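This section describes the prediction task in plain terms. A model, or a person checking by hand, is given the sequence of a single protein chain and must write out its three-dimensional structure as a string of tokens. No templates, partner chains or ligands are provided. The sample shown here is typical of the held-out split.
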Amino acid sequence: MAGGVSQQVVQSISHLARRTGSHLLCEGVATEQEFYFPLECGARYVQGYFF
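The expected answer:
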């Protein structure tokens, strides 16, 4: 997942999570690029085959 619209959607979900006292977990991280994408969008946790 990458790109402008995808990043905006994930950032919006991350913002909603913070406002409700929750944390965002992104799954399916298999590459280094996929690792940085959720972090740039504000995710707190990531998991996947990359680890």
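For orientation: The mean pLDDT is 87.
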